[in-house]
Amino acid sequence: MHALAPRAQIARGTSGESRWELATRPPSPRLRPYIRDYSGYTEQAPGPLRRREFPVPQVVVIIEFGPPLRVLGAGGDRGHSLYPGGFVAGLDDTFTLTEHDGFQRGLQLNLTPIGARLFFGVPMAELTGRVVSARDLLPRKHARLAERLEELPTWDARFDLIERALAERIDEARIETGVVSWAFRRIQERGGAVDMRALARELGYSQKHVIDMFRENVGVPPKLLARLVRFDRLVQHLKAGASGTWAELAQRFGYYDQAHLARDVKQFTGTTPTRARAE
Q1: Is 116 exposed, middle or buried (0-12, 13-18, 19+ CB in 10 A)?
Q2: Core-most of 17, 65, 107, 218, by most CB within 10 Å?
Q3: Is residue 111 located within the same domain as residue 216?
Q4: Are both 123 and 221 inside the same structural domain?
Q5: 269 to each of 211, 235, 236, how far by Cα in Å?
Q6: Residue 184, domain extent
Q7: Cα–Cα–Cα angle for 85, 9, 84, nearest 5°?
Q8: Strands, DSSP E only, in 131-206?
Q9: Chain-centre distance of CA 67, in angstroms?
Q10: How far is 238 from 13, CA to CA, in rounded Å?
Q11: Are residues 198 and 165 located together in one domain of the fold?
């Protein structure tokens, strides 16, 4: 007798004057090496809303059912881009600003870099530091993915379609990612605390070759990936409401000292740790 698949959980709430709804469901076990998570969202606000999106060790896919988000470069002073139907954001070492006029609705799919490599079929270096229209990257078979998702009646049906599309592409892929997949998991499992020379020796390759493999299949060198993993663990720790001085957090998450933590936070967020924490 088969166990029942988990159903989407719907949460609703307010944040200031904004109202939001969030649908979540864990990915199927088979796809967890490729999908970090996914969610459906609706947000209504009385006016324009801008957010600072911190860099993460994942490829973010946004499928939009409403007006397209404005995506601004770091600093927000170089104009904005619109991607009707959604966009894909590769790994980066700095923040991105997004903005809407008071309403957004869509689906966010957070892929591991390996999952994105297999799903889109392009070298991840082509996405590094870039935001690209989802329609330009999606395989021809899934060119109308946004429209098909919006037409479905429930979030569970949408999540099912996303999983089927990803599973098909993984089964069809003829890209060898095994070595990098193992190294990526090692860096994640150790919270970024991995000696890169030792990693190269363990893999049996030169450091240069390991860097080349990571650029191809992840988008960034392993050292930058490790920094992103460490920073993401810090961010998730703070989002969970945990406390601690910056010196204590630096020690806990593997930074040399508080100044080292502050430099990384400044690069990744464009602001100080205290201000970033407030966001």
Answers
A1: buried
A2: 218
A3: no
A4: no
A5: 25, 11, 14
A6: 176-225
A7: 5
A8: 131-133
A9: 21
A10: 20
A11: no
Residue pair 59/87 in contact (Cβ under 8 Å)? The answer is no
User: Distance (Å, rounded) from C-alpha 279 to C-alpha 69?
Assistant: 19
Which of these three, 172, 187, 215, is where a domain ends?
172
Instruction: Burial-class residue 17 by CB neighbours within 10 Å (0-12, 13-18, 19+).
Output: exposed
- Which residue pairs, CB below 8 angstroms and at least 24 apart, start in 76-82? 76/50, 81/131
Asked if residue 184 and residue 62 are part of one domain, the reply reads no
Judge if 122 and 193 occupy the same domain.
Answer: no
Length of the chain: 279
DSSP letter string over 124-150? Answer: GGGTTT-EEEHHHHS-GGGTTHHHHHH
Cβ burial, residue 73 (10 Å; 0-12/13-18/19+): middle
Residues 46 and 161 in one domain: yes
